[in-house]
Amino acid sequence: MMAKGLLQNGVHVVIVSRRREKCDEALVELSPHGEVTAFSADITKADDREKLLNFLGDEIGSLSILINNAGANWGAKLEEFPDEGFEKIVNINLNAVFSLSRDSIPLLEKAATQTDPARIINIGSMDGIHVPIVSRTGTFAYVASKAGLHHLTKALAVELGPKHITVNAVAPGFFKSRMTDYVFEHYLTDIEEECPLDRVGEPEEIVGIVAYLASRAGAYTNGAIIPVDGGTSISKGKRSWMDSD
Question: Is the full-model pTM beyond 0.85?
Answer without folding.
Answer: yes
